[in-house]
Amino acid sequence: MAGFSELIKNFDKTRDYVRDFFIYGCKVRSDFDRKSVRTYGDEKRRVESWMGDCMRYDDSVRGRSVSISVDSGHIPENPLYSAYYSKSFTDNDIRLHFLITDILADGSSLTLREITDILNTEYGQLFDEQTVRNKLKEYTDEGIIVSEKQGKTLYYSLSQDRADDYINEFRGLSDALMFFSETQHFGIIGNSILKMLGLKNEHFFIKHNYMMHTLEDVLVPEILTAMNEKRYISFRTFSAKRRKAGDDLGTENQVVPMRILISVQTGRRYLAGYIRSLKRFAAFRLDYMKTVKKGDICENYDSLKAKFDRNMGRCFGVSFGMRRETGTVTPMKITFFADEEKEPYIIERLQREKRCCTLEKEGEHLYTLTADVFDPNELMHWAKTFIGRIVRIEGGADSVRQRFYDDISRMNRMYGGDDDEHIQ
Fold first, then answer.
1. Phi, psi of 42 (to 5 degrees)
2. 386 and 423 in contact (C-beta within 8 Å)?
3. Mean pLDDT of the region 95-104
4. Which of 19, 135, 173, 401 is 20 to 30 A from 157, alpha carbon to alpha carbon?
5. How much is the pLDDT for 1?
6. Which residue blocks in 31-128 are alpha helix, DSSP H?
7. CA 422/CA 407 separation, integer angstroms
């Protein structure tokens, strides 16, 4: 029976577990039904060993729930970075790492066959050329090794770029690196450079920091590369509802990636792309995505991108709704009440947050917002934050207006109070 190890082979499994159990923090041991109880115990011990003092335990009638509890404004480093430093490796991986760097340490430039011969003769290590070639390609992609073609032969040498040289040469670069290590996007890169240099972030503490995005960063490089190369990508999505229904395969998606969007309301990140099979744009939550793979080149990428940019001008949030084009439904008009003299901040907020909509003064203390958007439901979620100031709603889909009125009626039944005479 294999013993417990803190190292992991499959980051996707750990990513799902950390998100569902330790970030949301509402599940208990009995909710883990994908594999055996022992798997739950192993994953729990791994995360506890990484997170240390950031763990929180809550007991209830359902059992004990375990979660990560931190105040991002008081910690110098995102604790979720630890998951990226726990990938398992083989004996050959670690052996080749030190031997190849030692062979090239004198600045020499050697061919694949020369490196393989030196490994076999001088170090007494028998490696076939394909194994060495794969390791050299991996290190070339990561920038550790530089490959240069001379004639028909590739020559390999160690990269001369050294982080510590740049830190010493450019004043303030270490501070910039500390800031970068705690930003939302690819902060793990800055953090790994700091660790390599023996430095720690001592200056920057971010109060409102969406740390869970760190777990999604493993997908982003492949998505951005596909965008740059104008390729299709394929991935599977797993929603909470599908998992609860016992769907372990998820939904296979093939899309043309267009842009990564961030919701200013929830902080969630989405991939906006074109679904070839449905011939429409859609947005996918990154935290529900698994293992992105690049596909074929999209021949009409530029025309799709131009259409996407036009459509984004009619998205109030990240949703493209079910409409293929705007203009097919009467624009929705929402009239708000705001006193210009006593409540100028309300008008300022309407102007600041109206996004792709237009705002016009209709009468004394009345301001009308006109919106021709793909998904008016997103607009209504925002409009409800002005509840009590909504005078009337016109146009748009009947179902959207009716849902708003039903919500008001249900709220009135729950909390009581006088009827709102302003809503027409």
1. -65, -45
2. no
3. 88
4. 173
5. 42
6. 37-51, 91-103, 112-121
7. 16
Q: Pick the closest to residue 292 from 222, 360, 352, 237 (CA basis).
A: 222
**Mean pLDDT, the chain, as a whole number?**
82
Yes or no: say if 332 and 395 are a contact pair by the CB < 8 Å rule: yes
Contacts 24+ apart (CB under 8 A), 20-23: 21/47, 21/65, 21/66, 21/67, 22/47, 22/51, 22/66, 22/67, 22/68, 23/67, 23/68, 23/212
Phi/psi-derived region of residue 268, left when phi > 0, alpha when psi is between -120 and 50, beta in every other case: beta
- The predicted model gives 222-226 an average pLDDT of 92
Please count the other Cβ atoms lying within 10 Å of the Cβ belonging to residue 118.
Answer: 18
Q: In this structure, are residues 334 and 383 in contact, taking their beta carbons and an 8 Å threshold? A: yes
Shortest CA distance to 10 belongs to which of 74, 86, 73? 86
Rounded Cα gap, residues 304 and 310, in angstroms: 10
Query: For 368-378, how does the pLDDT look when each residue is reduced to its tens digit (9 = 90+)?
Result: 999 988 888 88
Beta bridge partners of 66: 57
Q: Which residue has the tokens 């084009």?
A: 325
* The residue to which tokens 């179902």 are assigned: 399
Which are the contacts of 235, defined by CB distance < 8 A and separation ≥ 6?
Answer: 219, 253, 284, 289, 290, 291, 292, 293
Say if residue 93's pLDDT is above 90.
no
Confidence of residue 37 (pLDDT cuts 50, 70, 90): low
Report the Cα 105 to chain-centroid distance in Å: 37
Q: Which residues pair with 185 in a beta bridge?
A: none
Q: Cβ contacts of residue 268 below 8 Å, gap of 6+? A: 262, 285, 286, 287
The DSSP code for 22 is: I
Contact 76, 179 (CB under 8 A): no
Task: State pTM to two decimals.
Answer: 0.73
**Could you read off the pLDDT of 145-198 as tens digits, one per residue?**
888 888 888 899 988 888 888 888 888 888 888 888 888 678 888 888 888 888
Which single residue is written with the structure tokens 């750990």?
14
DSSP assignment of 193-260: HHHHHT----S---SS--GGGGGGTTTHHHHHHHHHHTEEEEEEE--HHHHHTT--S-EEEEEEEEEE
The per-type count for the chain, helices as H runs and strands as E runs, is: 14, 14
